[in-house]
Description:
Layout: H1 2-12, H2 17-32, H3 39-55, H4 61-72, H5 76-87, H6 91-109, H7 114-120, H8 126-137, H9 141-149
Helix pairs in contact: 3-4, 4-5, 6-9, 7-8
Amino acid sequence: KVFQNFFREIQGMNCSALKVACLWQELLGEIVGASGETPAKREEWLEKALDFLEHSELGSGADCLRQAAMACGIGYESFRKKFERAVGMPPGHFLLGRRIEKARRLLALQSLTNGEIAAMLGFHDEFHFSKTFSKFTGTSPREFRKQARA
């Protein structure tokens, strides 16, 4: 169907051979993608990456991302760029979001201290956890815990 639309479109235009070649190249680029992968293959690596990040220990971000890249069979820099194009955010931000989401669940459901949560989720210390949590959610862990339990 995509090809039929393409040919229908160029038949109605008075295009030079060069213009047709450019349109053809653009069409193939859309079908195959800029990376040369088919959409199914692109989804496969992305599914693998998301699954890896979902089920990994959410500790050290850089190590986790390098392992995710290896699990997908992609170099780290390529992984980082492809992930950002596909998901709309760098993998580090995605992973940090996952850590904060887990922190929200722990704050709401557990009676762990902020220091214990920070250690579980790979933050440097309680202050780093609190500052990052506040920046991400707009509220401090203490306030979030109060609101969640109210």
